[in-house]
Write a structure and sequence with these properties.
Number of helices: 5
Strand order of the largest sheet: 3-2-6-9-10-5-4
Radius of gyration: 19 Å
Helix content: 10-25%
Structural class: alpha+beta
Distance between the termini: 74 Å
Strand content: 35-45%
Amino acid sequence: MNDLPKQPAIPDPANELASDSSSIDPRDFRNALGTYGTGVTIITATATDGKPYGITCNSFASVSLNPPLVLWSLGVYSSSLTVFQNASHFTVHVLGTSQQALADKFAKSSEDKFAGVEWIPGLGNAPVLAESVANFQCRSVNRYYGGDHVIFLGAVEAYAYHAKEPLLFARGTYGRFLADDERKKP
């Protein structure tokens, strides 16, 4: 006889909340998530053939200060998923309020998103874009599968930042941060 409490069976995470078995409406859930304001980033990497790739992303987050780790996620149906899965490095660029057009450019499918964009090769040849508020050059450490996304974990090997105002995103639109003292101005 065993006196331990019975534990429920652990569901398979790949199927637990699949859209066909969840009572949560995906569109409404996305609207709810949109109430959480985020920064706007562009993630870049280089394909094995040397071609630069980049995507607009707002799923960026810090993980650890020691060691310095960050994460971001990409949909499993993204046309550039293979590039990021095979890249040794990626760079995260935090965009400023003046870079909304750049965010839009990298959010859309295009043969050459880098046309007219100033950049230099960084660690692992991952492009480092000019004029971002901050950039984090990362070595790819691991990937985790979470539902319809792949979560990328990166070890920060170099970074830079400036005192520019970051671009924010909430409820499907861009915005900016207003400090308490700014709101009180006439």
